[in-house]
Write a structure and sequence with these properties.
single chain, 209 residues, alpha/beta, Rossmann fold, five-stranded parallel beta sheet, two-stranded antiparallel ribbon, 7 helices
């Protein structure tokens, strides 16, 4: 069975994760989701003070080779054990999660379209495009409430790495997208178009089997 890989890219706080999760929910048991955030490289050998200052918005911050390997396994119908990440401590956690393959494999991340090998694996490439002011406000709320950060650290990180890396890597990658979705994860017109396309492709694959 041919499996479909759909990539969702976009800046921090753009709503790409929300849109990806909605698509997964719509396809039900036919879908599985992988987040690029789980694949931050492990720096547990470094003191916390040094880990805090790593540029987490640069491609080098990710274990992209592992992500590519896992996507290949899922594409081949194999299960994977993917890492998880502790954002409060800036380290990879001890927990690994089993993920079984499915007809639809959704992968999302801010730098998903930066790596050519990753891009070449994607059957559908979706860029979620949201105003920068909205994105930073969403990031502030998320990082303080969910990731144990304080306001000053979030603002500093945004100004020193998030914004410049977005302009250098994320924004230019928009040109690689098959579909650009404005205004985040609750654009229902775009959502319905994506889901209908996915369901049609699933039906086409089933007809070939």
């Amino acid at each position: 069975m041919e499996r479909l890989i759909i990539g969702f890219c976009g800046g921090t706080g753009s709503g790409k994760t929300t849109l990806a999760e909605r698509v997964i929910e719509a396809v039900g048991g036919d879908g599985v989701m992988v987040s690029m955030d789980c694949y931050y490289s492990d720096h547990s050998d470094m003191p916390f003070e040094e880990r805090v200052n790593i540029n987490y918005d640069h491609p080098n911050a990710f274990d992209t080779d592992l992500l590519i390997s896992h996507l290949k396994d899922l594409k081949a119908g194999k299960s994977i054990l993917h890492p998880t990440y502790d954002f409060a401590r800036h380290v990879r956690s001890d927990k690994w999660v089993e993920l079984k393959s499915a007809k639809v494999i959704v992968v999302e991340g801010i730098l998903l379209f930066e790596n050519k090998e990753l891009v070449d694996m994607l059957d559908i490439k979706i860029f979620v495009d949201t105003d920068a002011d909205v994105r930073i406000l969403r990031r502030l709320v998320r990082d303080v409430k969910e990731r144990g950060r304080n306001l000053d650290s979030v603002v500093k990180q945004y100004l020193t790495t998030v914004k410049p890396m977005h302009e250098r890597f994320v924004e230019p990658s928009k040109r690689l997208a098959d579909v650009i979705v404005p205004e985040g994860g609750y654009n229902d017109v775009a959502f319905n178009m994506i889901v209908n396309t996915v369901r049609r492709k699933i039906a086409e694959q089933e007809d070939l089997c």
